[in-house]
Amino acid sequence: MKYLYIILPLALLYALPARAQGYKGEITTEQVQARKVRDKVAIEFILNLEKLKLHPQLMVALTPVIRSSDNARAHVFDPIVISGAKRDRALDRALASGDFHFDVEPLARMRHRNNRPENIIVQLDVPYAPWIREARLLMHAVVTGCGACEIDQREIEVTATVLPPVYAPEYRLSLLYPTVEPVSKKRVEQLHFTIGNADIRPGFSDNAAALERVDQFFARIQADPNLSVDTCNLTGFASPDGNFNSNMRLSEERVYSFVNYLKSKYNLPPDRFNARWVGEDWEGLLTLIDTLSFRGKEEVARLIRTEINIARRKERLKALAGGATYRYLLKNVFPALRRSEYAINYVARPFDVVKAKTMLHQKPCPLTLNEMYMVALTCEKGSDEFNEVFRIALETYPDAPVARINAAATSISRGQTDAAISYLLFVEQPEAWNNLGVAYSNVKNYDLALEYFERARDAGCTDAAHNLQELQKLLDDYLY
Q1: Strand partners, 341
Q2: Looking at domain 184-292+333-347, does it have CATH number 3.30.565.10?
Q3: Is the pLDDT of residue 436 over 90?
Q4: What are 363-401's pLDDT values in tens digits?
């Protein structure tokens, strides 16, 4: 089989599954391949002349043309000239004598012999321009006879589009699962007592504010049918001044003073209470000392840690600095140790997603972010209902990073890029940076997209690592 190679600068090419009909079925194009190589488009195809029947005195000039889809632009390559045997010899003589010249110097000339397998491998390149992607590649065929008179002309379509569409990156948007709030929760509070006393006095220390917080807490629990008290754990304490055994009894009286207050005021059953008392609170004393600054502080702490005999420890404390240190402790530290603490565990009833869907549209919405996300999982991803859940989450929790990140993801998927960017600009989390990268890529701000993808990847976001690869494929195809 005879091959003629006609070559402009080329590279290995991206295959296109295109095939075009030839001139009256006699010239066909095969194995059309094209790809973008940085700032050029490289094209290769085979002209199959096996079925071409050409009169010995005729000549065919085949001119490759890239023509835009709107016919407004075109790139014309130099022609390929195929001649019958007699015409080719006459052409040689005319060219040699100067009696004939081509208007455009051909890429190559070929003498055609009928009934023989003949192929021409054509390799072309052209500077890349965006319009070329959707352009057609044609072969303009002009047949001339002796005297260069035109007999006929045809167009052979090589491929309907020169290049495939620009690479469409498959980005991954980050959606966050809100932190699941525990079903069991705890509320901690403490009351203080005067020296040697176990009565609750609202006007003493900060007891008024503490009791008000207790009242508000129980009012909320009793008003919410979804919440109930599980256990009340209470502990009584005494300061180290005075008799050890008396202080133990005093700490017991203080804890039951608080128990009786809660029982009577909130009608709580006895089995909800766990009461304990520890007597003198030496551990609490050490903790308070660490937070204070006074002369002899280190000596006090060392004495408490090393002297295991309680009576001797007290006597030694009283003797420090001629009694000045002990007087400081009596005035500034011991009062905070005379207290009762309570920790109330309360539980929420099991989550009901059907009821939550109804509650979602209440104003204000009573659901947590995690409960809203549970509702979203029951919807088809990307549906209007799915997106509405994240809109309500953002409206209810406008400062929550999770709400902003998820609302931005749904906005990007709906093409609302500006809104998504506004949600994310001040959220310093890898998932926010990843979604910003997608948003900026969608508006062709590739520099910012690259910056945010890299920041998110470096912070451990796997979605961003994938998106960086996708962006690079796009840049290789679109820019380079």
Answers
A1: 190, 235
A2: no
A3: yes
A4: 766 778 888 888 888 888 888 888 888 888 888 888 889
Please compute, for residue 175, the number of CA atoms within 13 A of its CA located in the half-sphere on the CB side: 19
Gap between the Cα atoms of 2 and 119, Å rounded: 6
DSSP one-letter code for 32: E
SS (HEC) of 52-117? CCCCCCCEEEEEEEEECCCCCCEEECCCEEEECHHHHHHHHHHHHHCCCCCCCCCCEEEECCCCCC
Return the CATH fold of 351-478. Answer: 1.25.40
Task: List the structure tokens of 363.
Answer: 């104003």
The structural domains of the chain, with segments of one domain joined by +, span 2-159, 184-292+333-347, 351-478
Q: Work out the number of other CB atoms within 10 angstroms of the CB of residue 32.
A: 21
Phi, psi of 197 (to 5 degrees): -130, 150
Rounded to an integer, what distance in angstroms lies between the CA atom of residue 47 and that of residue 59? 16
The answer to whether 360 and 392 are in contact (CB under 8 A) is yes
Bridge-based pairing state of the strands 40-48 and 118-127: antiparallel
187, β-bridge pairs:
344
pTM: 0.51
Contact present, 30 and 45 (Cβ < 8 Å): yes
Task: Please report where in the chains the tokens 């620009």 appear, as a residue.
Answer: 166
The residue count of the chain comes to: 480
